Amino acid sequence: MIETGLGISFDEPTHEFIYPSAAFGPMHAEQRHLKDILHSMADHEAQGPEIVYSIAMDVGLKKDRADLLERELLFGIVAYADGSIGEEPVKSQGHIHAISKTCQMSTPEVYEIWSGEAIIYMQERATDNPGRCYAVRAKAGEVVIVPPGWAHCTINASKTERMLFGAWCVRDYGFEYEDVRAHNGLTFYPKFDAQGTIVWEQNPSYQAEELIEKAPRVYSEFKIVDKLPIYQQYEQDHTKFDFVVRPDLYKDKWLNYIP
């Protein structure tokens, strides 16, 4: 794992996060089981790990807790299993961030990969015409920002290595699944080929033109610093991730957004 400044580790046998004395987090992680996500897979009867991923929402350093509460800002951490689900990689359910009471609009999410390799898949909409579709492949230490209102999911890009990430989101986060489930998932299904490489199969429920595969970029418009963990960036400047909570104040940044 990269050095995050939080000192949190993951216990493989129990699927629980372990916090040092200076940090806080939930006593028990939420566990997402295979049965919870099969409806978002291409094969609804696929076999895979029983616990697909483990989630701890609202973690951080105790000294920062009051400020995080005041800002309506929340940090979460997630650990994905290795292996596969049938022919598909381990991944989350596709969803759109719900409208937040804080800003009266959908909110963004700032991902930072901690270990392994991830693909953050995102599309502009979950309607028949999904708009632009991106698959952003990120390694440990790299950051990816999903903009407000976009449907997305998180994928473990490796069959053999567990993947962990941390993320900034709004405190009253919520997920909308209806449109994604009505289309049997997102526009492109990731699958492992015979060599273990991820390839993409189009979901016929959508009218899509292409999938753009790319590497993460530097988000200079949000003053995100390269190679400095995002929690430490918050420690240096508590206002840096205010755009996560109040994306309505940054509407110009979301126009023609490229991940």
From TrEMBL:
Molecular function terms, GO-annotated: isomerase activity
Signal peptide stretch: none
Enzyme Commission number: 5.3.1.9
Reactions catalysed, as given in the entry: alpha-D-glucose 6-phosphate = beta-D-fructose 6-phosphate
Annotated Glucose-6-phosphate isomerase prokaryote domain residues: 45-205
Source domain of life: Bacteria
Gene3D superfamilies in alphabetical order: Jelly Rolls (2.60.120.10)
Keywords: Gluconeogenesis, Glycolysis, Isomerase
Pathway entry: Carbohydrate degradation; glycolysis; D-glyceraldehyde 3-phosphate and glycerone phosphate from D-glucose: step 2/4
Record Pfam families: GPI
Enzyme class label: isomerase
The UniProt record lists the keyword Lipid metabolism: no
Family: Belongs to the archaeal-type GPI family.
Protein name in UniProt: glucose-6-phosphate isomerase
Lineage of origin: Bacteria, Bacillati, Bacillota, Bacilli, Lactobacillales
